[in-house]
Structures are given as structure tokens and as C-alpha cells.
């Protein structure tokens, strides 16, 4: 899975999530810090990212307007630590993999257990 993490999630999550994702990048490391959501979405599409993980609903309008790819993994956990978020994502990795492969859905909402 090729996944891009939005700037509203700390880049410190990368090493915590590397065991679960084949190819994981953060906006900070691809030169898109403070880029507009449209530019991020189109970058992800052009570079073959299957999904963007984000904490905000900013990408919902873009996915509705332009459709996938990329899909959106919308984390709706409220304010939590990077480690807690990493654990939540790790516990949902199989569901995330299924979501990436599913052709019926383009938004997956992640809630705190």
C-alpha cells in the first residue's frame, strides 16, 4: 500500500507505522508542507498513492468532486498522542487493507475504540 500522511498528523508516526505499510510518506518529506489540499490530492493521484491519512474533513469535497484515487482515511479520534493514533491504525490495519482494495468505498472513517 502506498499511503500519504497529511501534515495534521505528526511525522513521528512514520517509524511507528512502517511495519504495517509497504510505502508510507509524510507531506513534510515530499515537499508539500503547507500545500493546498487540492495540490496534495492531485500530487497523491499523480504519484500513485492509494490513500491519504488525515485528521480533517478537508479532503471530503475533493473526493466528492474528483473521486479516487486517492482514497481518504479520515481519522476522527479527536486530539490524541501520536503513539495512541499509531496503535489505533495498527489495530485496524486489516480493515484498512480491505478498504484500499474495495472498489465500492472511497472514504474510511477511523474512530477511537
Short description:
By secondary structure, this protein is α/β, with parallel strands linked by helices.
Report the structural category: alpha/beta
**Envelope shape:** globular
Looking across the biggest beta sheet, what order are the strands in? 2-1-3-4-5
Individual helix count? 5
Q: Let me know the average pLDDT.
A: 94
Helix-strand pattern:
EHEHEHEHHE
Head-to-tail CA distance between termini: 24 Å
Beta-strand content estimate: 15-25%
Helix content: 25-40%
Q: Tell me the Rg in angstroms.
A: 13 Å
DSSP strand count: 5
Sheet with most strands: 5 strands, parallel
Residue runs with pLDDT of under 50 for 5 or more positions:
none
Describe the overall structure.
This protein is α/β, with parallel strands linked by helices and 113 residues long. Helix content is 37%, strand content 20%. The chain contains five helices and five strands; from the N terminus they run E-H-E-H-E-H-E-H-H-E. It has helices spanning 14-17, 37-46, 58-66, 82-91, 93-101; strands at residues 2-5, 23-26, 51-54, 71-76, 107-111. Strands 2-1-3-4-5 form a five-stranded parallel beta sheet, sandwiched between helices. This is DUF5615 family PIN-like protein. It holds the Pfam family DUF5615. Residues 1-107 form the DUF5615 domain.
What's the arrangement of secondary structure elements?
Blueprint: E1 2-5, H1 14-17, E2 23-26, H2 37-46, E3 51-54, H3 58-66, E4 71-76, H4 82-91, H5 93-101, E5 107-111
Parallel strand pairs: 1-2, 1-3, 3-4, 4-5
InterPro entries: DUF5615
Domain DUF5615: 1-107
Organism: Dyadobacter sp. 676
